[in-house]
């Protein structure tokens, strides 16, 4: 049976080509705005100039240099700037890292006390945030329509997530043409990240949640169908539009309402990024196939459903179907150009020890939909991903 749930997603979506101009109607005319962005991409592809034009005569301050896997120290500089300038509205222009970073800045500006505790408490201590919107340039994380954020702190080698209903974006501009400048590597990462977001909320155990299951299966199939199209043509608007909307839906709360969720691949993956700076999506491709195999008994019914409904695997006995679908999932990542082993990153058994140690120090000792992914299980997952 489905669990009881509340569902409310307050983020307004402004979808389609040319929608950056509509920022003007979304942000109060007298707002003091801090525009946050990453490296050079938003400037180079003209998005920042479009944003500046749309903001018109408002008081605008800019903060660039938010890294992929946004860093606590960098973001704290933005917090200080915002406090100094009496900023009352934030605008993120970029990918998931800039959006996540902006969420942290939004929560940290009014926060009294040690702002790193927002992460160690996973957002439980957040009681307010400065309002913000986003202009998304990289479809992948779903951060543009959810209340999660993941921040890295180099000083303590930690990559931790926080969640708070105060950090839903007020609005997000999703203009598919903003993705035209993405390199293939980032497109592939986006497909893989969204794919695993869906899997984390779907591949658990059945609770007779027909809507959530069918939506999840449809989103997975959409990504499978889009992957080759995204490789072919840089300016296929329809492909980019569908891709963008799929990645948003993969993690906007809808398919996860009332159903068990896993997230072990993400938690193990975050440690791999914190230690070895591997792209987020790539860590998931290392962990997931191996986790599916390790958890094949606990996930048996959903693995069989996934095999049949998503991949059309309907021959062989149960064990063979599960073998086939794990292999097919691994191939999907490899076909995207994303390796699925630790060896591909020159990592060996020392990395297994290091990740398990990190998991322990972050209290990640009972992960998964039934808390069955203990440190021993995480170790086995990583060992079979060598
Ligand atoms: O820094 P710039 O120059 O902007 O370049 C970025 C960056 O190098 C580039 N890029 C972005 N848009 C572009 C572009 N290049 C050309 N054209 C464009 N239109 O892409 C690179 C990667 O950007 P990043 O924002 O880091 O990627 P992504 O969107 O995949 O975000 C990854 C981060 O999100 C977190 C991850 O852990 C990671 O830190 N996640 C956030 C989640 C959430 N809030 O719900 C869930 C996810 O599971 C994930 O953990
Ligand atoms: Zn992810």
UniProtKB/TrEMBL annotation:
Gene3D superfamilies: 3.40.50.1970, Dehydroquinate synthase-like - alpha domain
Domain Fe-containing alcohol dehydrogenase-like C-terminal: 189-358
Organism placement in taxonomy: Bacteria, Pseudomonadati, Planctomycetota, Planctomycetia, Pirellulales
Species of origin: Novipirellula rosea
Identification of the protein by name: Iron-containing alcohol dehydrogenase
Keywords: Oxidoreductase
InterPro entries: ADH_Fe/GldA, ADH_Fe_C, ADH_Fe_CS, BDH-like
PROSITE patterns per UniProt: ADH_IRON_1 (PS00913), ADH_IRON_2 (PS00060)
Annotated ranges, domain Alcohol dehydrogenase iron-type/glycerol dehydrogenase GldA: 10-176
């Amino acid at each position: 049976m489905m669990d009881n749930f509340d569902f409310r997603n307050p983020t307004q979506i402004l979808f389609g080509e040319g929608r950056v101009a509509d920022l003007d109607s979304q942000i109060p005319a007298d707002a003091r705005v801090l525009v946050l962005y990453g490296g050079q991409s938003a400037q180079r592809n003209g998005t920042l100039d479009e944003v500046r034009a749309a903001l018109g005569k408002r008081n605008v301050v800019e903060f660039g240099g938010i890294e992929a896997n946004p860093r606590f120290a960098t973001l704290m500089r933005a917090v200080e700037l915002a406090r100094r300038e009496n900023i009352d509205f934030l605008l993120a222009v970029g990918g998931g890292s800039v959006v996540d970073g902006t969420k942290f800045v939004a929560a940290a500006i009014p926060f009294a006390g040690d702002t790193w505790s927002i992460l160690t408490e996973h957002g439980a201590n957040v009681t307010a945030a400065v309002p913000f919107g986003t202009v998304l340039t990289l479809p992948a994380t779903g951060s543009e329509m959810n209340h999660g954020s993941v921040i890295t702190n180099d000083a303590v080698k930690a990559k931790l997530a926080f969640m708070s209903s105060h950090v839903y974006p007020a609005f997000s501009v999703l203009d598919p043409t903003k993705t035209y400048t993405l390199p293939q590597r980032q497109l592939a990462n986006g497909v893989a990240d969204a794919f695993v977001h869906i899997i984390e909320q779907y591949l658990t155990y059945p609770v007779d949640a027909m809507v959530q299951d069918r939506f999840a299966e449809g989103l997975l199939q959409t990504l499978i169908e889009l992957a080759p199209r995204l490789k072919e043509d840089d300016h296929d608007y329809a492909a980019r539009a569908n891709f963008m909307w799929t990645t948003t839906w993969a993690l906007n709360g809808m398919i996860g309402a009332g159903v068990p969720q896993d997230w072990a691949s993400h938690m193990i993956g975050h440690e791999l990024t914190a230690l070895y700076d591997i792209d987020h999506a790539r860590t998931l491709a290392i962990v997931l196939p191996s986790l599916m195999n390790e958890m094949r008994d606990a996930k048996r019914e959903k693995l069989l459903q996934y095999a049949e409904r998503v991949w059309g695997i309907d021959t062989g006995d149960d064990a063979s179907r599960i073998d086939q679908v794990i292999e097919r999932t691994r191939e999907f990542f490899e076909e995207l150009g994303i390796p699925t082993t630790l060896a591909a990153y020159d990592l060996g058994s020392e990395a297994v020890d290091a990740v398990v140690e990190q998991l322990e120090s972050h209290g990640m000792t009972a992960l998964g939909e039934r808390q069955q992914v203990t440190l021993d299980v995480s170790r086995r997952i990583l060992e079979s991903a060598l």
